[in-house]
Amino acid sequence: MATTGKRILKQLYAQTVAGTPLTSADLAAFGVSADLAVHYVRSGWLHRLARGVFVRTGEEPNLHASLRLLERTIPGFHVGGKTALDWYGVRHYVAQQEQLHLYGANAVKLPTWFTERFPAEYHRKRLFTEPTEKPLHVAALEGREGAPLVSAPERAMLELLSEVGVRQPLQEAKELMESAYNLRAEVLQELLKRCTNVKTVRLCLQLGRASSLPWAQKLDAAELPTGSARPWVARSSDGLLVLKP
Fold first, then answer.
1. Average pLDDT over the chain, rounded to whole?
2. How far apart, in Å, do the first and last CA atoms of the chain sit?
3. How many CA atoms lie within 13 A of 204 on its CB side?
4. Do residue 115 and residue 21 come from a single domain?
5. What is the mean pLDDT of residues 138-147?
6. Cβ–Cβ under 8 Å, residues 40 and 2
7. What is the mean pLDDT of residues 168-183?
């Protein structure tokens, strides 16, 4: 390998974290041309995960670093719903290999190199009236630099409730909500006011009140989009779901 190539490779290894997937653009920022990337792959210094995506040879992609890469390509991408709740310690059932619940504003297919390593379910959701590129109450996990974007517990709960009757069992949602007694009423109020799904708003109010959760008593239902005066009715695997205003 030419001296320049060795110098660039040394710099690349020194300035990247183990397990970080690198795109062709990332490599170009280090001075690695497409031809040089091919040379590194053939020489065993880089491993090609997919077209235009690489990782240092001998390393598996790190989950958090992989999520950060997807954030760059999918508008509004973040960890949410049941996965976010689990990361905050709100859990009931423990699956042997729980799927990641990931959310974004556009309909996309997650890359195979990612799903082969991290079983995941992607939800295209526009559950709230909000800027696509800056979802409400989504931030880096625990405020850590380099951590993936994750829904706050209040948003994660509403994302979970939005799936009830579709892919989320009602009973599990009830039990998870009972474990989330310390949700912030002011954050829920803000999110519910911007929620575009009547079922989610009504379900949150109904389950919260039924379990006498402290935050539920502080919500002002008169300000929330609960829909018409008629009951919301849907049939699901749980049976008939009836939600009153």
1. 89
2. 70
3. 34
4. no
5. 92
6. no
7. 89
Unique residue bearing structure tokens 């049941």? 82
Structure tokens that stand for 15 in this block: 């300035």
Residue 94 belongs to a domain = yes
DSSP string, the chain: --HHHHHHHHHHHHHS-TT--EEHHHHHHTT--HHHHHHHHHTTSEEEEETTEEEETT-PPPHHHHHHHHHTTSTT-EE-HHHHHHHTT--S---TTPPEEEEESS-----HHHHTTS-EEEEE---BSS-TTS-TTEEEGGG-TTPPEEE-HHHHHHHHHHTBTTTB-HHHHHHHHHH-TT--HHHHHHHHHTB--HHHHHHHHHHHHHTT-TTGGG--GGGS---SSSPEEEEETTEEEEE--
- Alpha-carbon separation of residue 89 from 44, 79, 176, 179, 215 (angstroms): 41, 14, 10, 9, 18
Gap between the Cα atoms of 123 and 64, Å rounded:
18
Give me the domain span that covers residue 21.
Answer: 3-56
Contacts for 188 with CB less than 8 Å, ≥ 6 apart? 154, 157, 158, 204, 215, 219
Domain match, 116 and 211 both:
yes
pLDDT band at 130 (very low <50, low <70, confident <90, very high): very high
**Tens-place pLDDT, residues 227-236:** 666 665 555 5
Type of residue numbered 231: P
Type of residue numbered 148: P
Domains of the chain: total = 2
